C-alpha cells in the first residue's frame, strides 16, 4: 500500500491550490492560526473525500439512508483509507441516549444481567424461583367462583415483522382467536401486520369460567400454552387485567410472576423494560424531542432509573442495573475487578465482562473516568462528546483506518492530555493513520509529523507554511508555530497581578459533586477556575454562580433552577452578569456574523440613506434577504436552490435569477462606494474594516471582531459553518459592542477553543481590556497561557467525579505553583519557569 496520502490541488474554502503528502501510519498534527485552513484541509477535503468514496461503493438502495458528501474541490487524493471523523459535535441530542448506550457498554450490561441476574419479588423481596405447571393451575383454581378468564400463550413479544407464517401455523393447529397488540382478533380472517412496527401476538388457548370440576380443563390449557411459549398469560375478561405466569420466574409467596428475563427486559428504550410512568425517560414531564434536562421532575415510580419495577428487582452482585449505571466509569472498573463469581458464572460472564472493562478502560484513559454510565448524552460538553466517540472507536479494534480529529484536547487538563496522547498512539500503532487539527502545545510536540498552515487567516491563509517533525518546525523561521515552540515568540507574563478589594462569597456549594465548599471570587480582576475534567468547575461557575446572578439581575424570573448552595454575597456590588459559551449562534444558514452582531442593521440603514435608495423609496427592510421585497424570490434569499436526488447527494444549484447574490436586480443596483449589498456580505471583517473606516458605529464593531481574532471570517458566512470557538468569540464581540457602565460579571467557558498561540494573546488583551474598564472576568480554562496570565486562580479537584468537588488551591499563579496538592500548580510551574517575565509580579 502507498506510504503517503497525496493531496493535489486542494482548493476547498480558502485553500490555495495546495499539494501536500501526509505519511500513513503516523500521528500528524495540522496547526496554524484560526481560519488558516486547517479544518478545510483535514475535514472538508481529506475526510470528506474518504467518506464520499466509501458511500459511493455501496448500493444505490443503501446510499439513500446515509449522509451524502459532495466531492471536495481538489484535483486528486491518492493513498486514502476508509475515514472516520471525530469532531466536537455532541454525540446525541436524544434524552434517551446515555454514556452507557452510545458506547454500547449498557448493551453488554443488559446481557450480563439477563444471564447472571437474580430476580427478587418487588412485593415481598423474596427471591423469584421456578414455577411448575401444577402450582400455576392451583393458583388459577383459587380465583373466585364465576370469574371469567382466558388463557393466552405469547408467541411474539414486542418484535418487528408481519408474522404471516406464524399466524398460519396457529390456524392449522386449530386456534381461532388471538390478542394482537392488545386487540382481540379472529384468526379465520386475513390479518395484515406492518412489518416495520413492533407487535405482540398472544394466542387464546381457552376461555374458562371458574367453578368446581374444571381442574383438568385448566391443566390442559396451561400445558398447551407452555407448548408454544415460556410464559402463560391469564386475562380477567371483565376487568381486562392480566396475570403473568412463568416456568422460571415466580414468587412462591405472592404468586407474582416475571416475564422471561432477556436483555430487552433491561432496556428503557423498549416497552419490555421501560418504566410505564415516564416511558423510560426518567422524568415525568420530559418529551422525546427535549434537548435540556433542566426544569424537569424526576419520575417517582422509577426514581429516575428509567426501568419498570420488575427490572429493578433483578440484581447482580447485590445491586440492580439502574444503580450499577449510576456508578462512575472508574468505580465500575473497581467493582467488576473485585466481583466474586462461581466457576459456572465465571464461564458465562468472562467474555461479557471483558468487553465492558475494555470499553471502560478506554474511557478512563482519555480522561473520562469521572462520568457515570447513566450520564445523559445531551449534558456532555463538546470535548467530552469527542472523547466518548474516540473511546467507542478504540473499542472496535480497527486497522488500516484514517482517523480525523478536531481538537481532541478541548476540555482536558494537562494531566489528562498525556493519557489522551497515549491512547492516540496506541491507535496509530495498530497500523492506523491519525490526523489531528490542534493548537495544544503538548499535542504538537507529541506528533510524528506537523503541517503548519497560514501564514494568516481567511484570504491571508490557505498555504502550507511548513511541514516536518516537531524539531524541523522549531527550526523553520517561516513557521509562526515553530517560533512559539522554540521560544522566539511567547505569551509574556503580566507586569503585575491585580489585587482585589472585594469578593463574591459562595458558601455551602453542594450541587452535583461539590462537597459543601466555600469559595471567594475576587471582583474587578481576571480569575481562572481550573482543575481536572469533572472536578466541578462548570457546576460552581455556571450552575450556581451564573444562575444565581441571572435570577438577581433578570427583570423576569428565570425558570431554570439554581444549583445547591447556602448563601451568596457580593452580587449586590455588580450591575449585570453575562455568560459567553460555545453554543451555536444560529441553526440556519440565514444567521451570520453580520446579522448576529448587529452590524448588518447599520449597513442596511446606511444603504437606505443613499440618494438612489431614497429616490426609489427603499427602507432598510429592502436590504434584508429574510423578507420579501428586496430579496430574490426564486430562491427566497438563499442564493442556492436545493434539488433532492433521493439516493444520490442533494444537489445545490446556483439560482438562475440572482447567481448566489440573494437579492433581486433592483436592490443590487444600489451601491455604496461601488459595492452593492451582496458584495458587502462577501467581504471579510478585515476588508470591511477598511471599507467602512469612515462610519464610526460600523467601524467600532468591526474593530472588536478584528481584535478578538475574527478578521478572517466573512460578514455573510453562514452560522452553521462556524466552530464552537468562533461562535463564542462572536458572542463576546457582541457583548463588547454594547455600552456597559462597568461592574459587569463576564463568565467565559473555555474561550481558547480553536485558538492558536497568536490568537490567545489577542484574547488575553480583550479580557484585560474588560477588567481595566471596571468589570470582573471569570474563565473556566485548562490552557496554561491563559492561566498564567490571570490575577487569581481557584483550583478544584483533586480528581473528577466523586473524587473531586473540593477547593485544592487558590491565589495568584505564583502562589499556586507552591501548592503540592494542585495538579494545575505542577504544570503551571513548568510554564512559568519557561516564560519571559516582564516586570515584577506582586
Question: What's the helix and strand layout?
Answer:
Elements (H helix, E strand, L loop, with lengths): L3 E7 L7 E6 L3 E5 L6 H19 L3 H4 L10 E5 L4 E4 L12 H4 L2 H12 L1 E2 L13 H9 L6 E13 L3 H9 L4 E4 L2 E4 L11 E12 L5 H14 L2 E6 L4 E6 L67 E3 L2 E2 H5 L3 H9 L5 H23 L16 H13 L7 E5 L7 H16 L3 E5 L3 H6 L2 E6 L8 E6 L1 H5 L5 H6 L17 E7 L7 E6 L3 E6 L5 H17 L13 E3 L6 E5 L12 H5 L1 H10 L2 H6 L23 E4 L7 E4 L10 H4 L8 H5 L3 H7 L4 H12 L16 H13 L7 E6 L7 H16 L3 E5 L3 H5 L3 E6 L8 E6 L1 H4 L6 H12 L8
Helix pairs in contact: 4-10, 5-7, 9-10, 22-23
Which tags fit this structure?
28 helices; 842 residues; 6-stranded antiparallel β-sheet; 29 strands
The main pleated sheet reads as:
6 strands, mixed
Task: State the share of residues found in helices, binned by percent.
Answer: 25-40%
Shape: globular
Class by helix and strand content?
alpha/beta
What is the percentage of strand-forming residues?
A: 15-25%
How far apart are the termini? 60 Å
How many DSSP helices? 28
Rg (C-alpha, Å)? 32 Å
Low-confidence stretches: 836-842
- Count the E strands: 29
Rounded mean pLDDT score: 89
Strands of the widest sheet, in order across it, are 5-15-16-3-17-18
Explain this structure to me?
The protein is of the alpha/beta class. Helix content is 32%, strand content 19%. The protein has 28 helices and 29 strands. A six-stranded mixed β-sheet has the order 5-15-16-3-17-18. The protein has a six-stranded antiparallel β-sheet with strand order 9-8-10-7-11-12. Helix 4 (105-116) runs antiparallel to helix 10, helix 9 (329-337) runs antiparallel to helix 10 and helix 22 (685-691) runs antiparallel to helix 23 (696-707). The longest helix is centred in the middle third of the chain and has 23 residues, at 343-365. The protein is globular and about 105 Å long. The two termini are 60 Å apart. Mean pLDDT is 89; it is low at 836-842.
Amino acid at each position: 500500500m502507498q506510504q503517503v496520502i497525496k493531496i493535489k490541488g486542494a482548493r476547498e474554502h480558502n485553500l490555495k491550490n495546495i499539494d501536500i503528502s501526509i505519511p500513513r501510519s503516523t500521528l500528524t498534527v495540522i496547526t496554524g492560526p484560526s481560519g488558516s485552513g486547517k479544518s478545510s484541509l483535514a475535514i472538508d477535503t481529506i475526510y470528506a473525500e474518504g467518506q464520499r468514496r466509501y458511500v459511493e461503493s455501496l448500493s444505490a438502495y443503501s446510499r439513500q439512508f446515509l449522509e451524502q458528501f459532495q466531492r471536495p474541490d481538489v484535483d486528486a487524493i491518492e493513498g486514502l483509507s476508509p475515514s472516520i471523523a471525530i469532531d466536537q459535535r455532541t454525540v446525541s441530542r436524544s434524552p434517551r441516549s446515555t454514556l452507557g448506550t452510545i458506547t454500547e457498554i449498557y448493551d453488554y450490561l443488559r446481557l450480563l444481567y439477563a444471564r447472571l441476574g437474580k430476580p427478587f419479588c418487588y412485593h415481598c423481596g423474596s427471591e423469584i424461583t421456578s414455577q411448575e405447571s401444577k402450582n400455576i393451575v392451583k393458583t388459577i383454581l383459587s380465583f373466585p367462583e364465576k370469574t371469567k378468564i382466558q388463557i393466552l400463550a405469547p408467541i411474539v413479544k414486542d418484535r418487528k415483522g408481519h408474522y404471516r407464517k406464524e399466524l398460519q401455523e396457529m390456524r392449522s393447529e386449530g386456534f381461532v382467536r388471538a390478542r394482537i397488540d392488545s386487540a382481540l382478533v379472529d384468526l379465520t380472517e386475513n390479518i395484515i401486520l406492518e412489518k416495520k412496527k413492533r407487535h405482540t401476538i398472544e394466542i387464546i388457548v381457552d376461555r374458562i369460567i371458574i367453578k368446581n370440576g374444571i381442574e383438568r380443563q385448566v391443566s390442559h390449557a396451561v400445558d398447551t400454552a407452555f407448548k408454544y411459549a415460556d410464559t402463560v398469560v391469564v386475562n380477567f375478561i371483565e376487568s381486562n387485567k392480566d396475570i403473568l405466569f412463568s416456568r422460571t420466574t415466580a414468587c412462591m409467596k405472592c404468586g407474582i410472576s416475571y416475564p422471561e428475563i432477556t436483555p430487552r427486559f433491561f432496556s428503557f428504550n423498549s416497552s419490555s423494560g421501560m418504566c410505564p410512568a415516564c416511558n423510560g425517560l426518567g422524568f415525568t414531564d420530559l418529551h422525546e424531542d427535549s434537548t435540556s434536562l433542566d426544569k424537569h421532575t424526576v419520575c417517582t415510580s422509577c426514581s429516575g432509573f428509567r426501568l419498570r419495577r420488575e427490572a429493578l428487582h433483578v440484581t447482580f452482585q447485590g445491586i440492580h442495573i439502574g444503580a450499577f449505571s449510576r456508578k462512575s466509569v472508574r468505580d465500575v472498573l473497581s467493582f467488576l475487578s473485585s466481583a466474586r463469581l462461581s466457576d459456572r458464572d465465571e464461564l458465562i460472564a468472562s467474555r461479557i465482562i471483558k468487553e465492558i472493562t475494555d470499553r471502560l478502560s478506554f474511557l478512563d484513559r482519555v480522561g473520562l473516568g469521572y462520568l457515570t454510565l447513566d450520564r445523559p448524552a445531551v449534558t456532555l460538553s463538546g470535548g467530552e462528546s469527542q472523547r466518548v466517540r474516540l473511546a467507542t472507536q478504540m473499542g472496535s479494534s480497527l486497522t488500516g483506518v484514517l482517523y480525523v480529529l478536531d481538537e481532541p484536547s478541548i476540555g482536558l487538563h494537562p494531566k489528562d492530555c498525556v493519557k489522551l496522547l497515549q491512547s492516540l498512539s496506541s491507535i496509530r500503532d495498530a497500523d492506523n493513520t491519525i490526523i489531528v487539527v490542534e493548537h495544544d502545545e503538548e499535542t504538537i510536540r507529541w506528533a510524528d509529523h506537523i503541517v503548519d498552515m497560514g501564514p494568516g487567516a481567511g484570504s491571508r491563509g490557505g498555504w502550507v507554511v511548513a511541514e516536518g517533525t516537531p524539531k524541523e518546525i522549531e527550526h523553520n523561521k517561516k513557521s509562526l508555530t515553530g517560533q512559539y515552540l522554540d521560544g522566539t515568540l511567547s505569551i509574556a507574563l503580566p507586569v503585575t497581578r491585580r489585587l482585589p478589594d472585594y469578593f463574591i462569597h459562595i458558601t455551602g456549594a453542594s450541587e452535583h459533586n461539590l462537597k459543601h465548599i466555600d469559595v471567594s471570587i475576587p471582583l474587578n480582576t481576571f480569575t481562572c477556575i481550573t482543575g481536572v475534567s469533572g472536578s466541578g468547575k462548570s457546576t460552581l461557575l455556571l450552575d450556581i454562580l451564573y444562575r444565581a446572578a441571572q435570577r438577581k439581575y433578570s427583570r423576569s424570573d428565570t425558570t431554570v433552577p439554581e444549583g445547591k448552595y447556602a448563601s451568596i454575597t457580593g452580587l449586590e456590588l455588580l450591575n449585570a452578569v453575562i455568560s459567553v459559551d460555545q453554543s451555536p449562534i444560529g441553526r440556519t444558514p440565514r444567521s451570520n456574523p453580520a446579522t448576529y452582531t448587529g452590524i448588518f442593521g447599520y449597513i442596511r440603514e446606511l444603504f437606505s440613506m443613499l440618494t438612489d435608495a431614497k429616490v426609489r423609496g427603499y427602507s432598510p427592510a429592502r436590504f434584508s434577504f429574510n423578507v420579501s421585497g428586496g430579496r430574490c424570490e426564486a430562491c427566497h434569499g438563499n442564493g442556492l436552490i436545493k434539488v433532492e436526488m433521493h439516493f444520490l447527494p442533494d444537489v445545490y444549484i446556483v439560482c438562475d435569477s440572482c447567481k448566489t447574490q440573494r437579492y433581486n436586480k433592483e436592490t443590487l443596483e444600489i451601491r455604496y462606494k461601488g459595492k452593492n449589498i451582496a458584495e458587502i456580505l462577501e467581504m471579510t471583517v478585515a476588508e470591511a474594516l477598511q471599507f467602512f473606516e469612515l462610519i464610526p458605529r460600523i467601524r467600532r464593531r468591526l474593530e472588536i471582531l478584528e481584535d478578538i481574532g475574527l478578521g478572517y471570517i466573512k460578514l455573510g458566512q453562514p452560522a452553521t459553518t462556524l466552530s464552537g470557538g468562533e461562535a463564542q468569540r462572536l458572542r463576546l464581540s457582541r457583548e463588547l459592542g454594547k455600552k456597559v457602565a462597568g461592574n459587569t460579571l463576564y463568565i467565559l467557558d473555555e474561550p481558547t477553543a480553536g485558538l492558536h498561540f497568536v490568537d490567545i494573546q489577542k484574547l488575553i488583551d480583550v479580557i484585560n481590556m474588560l477588567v481595566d474598564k471596571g468589570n470582573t472576568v471569570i474563565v473556566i480554562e485548562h490552557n496554561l497561557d491563559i492561566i498564567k496570565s490571570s490575577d487569581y486562580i481557584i483550583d478544584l479537584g483533586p480528581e473528577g467525579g466523586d473524587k473531586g468537588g473540593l477547593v485544592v488551591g487558590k491565589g495568584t499563579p505564583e502562589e499556586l505553583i507552591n501548592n503540592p496538592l494542585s495538579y494545575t500548580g505542577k504544570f503551571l510551574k513548568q510554564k512559568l519557569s519557561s516564560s519571559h517575565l516582564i516586570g515584577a509580579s506582586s
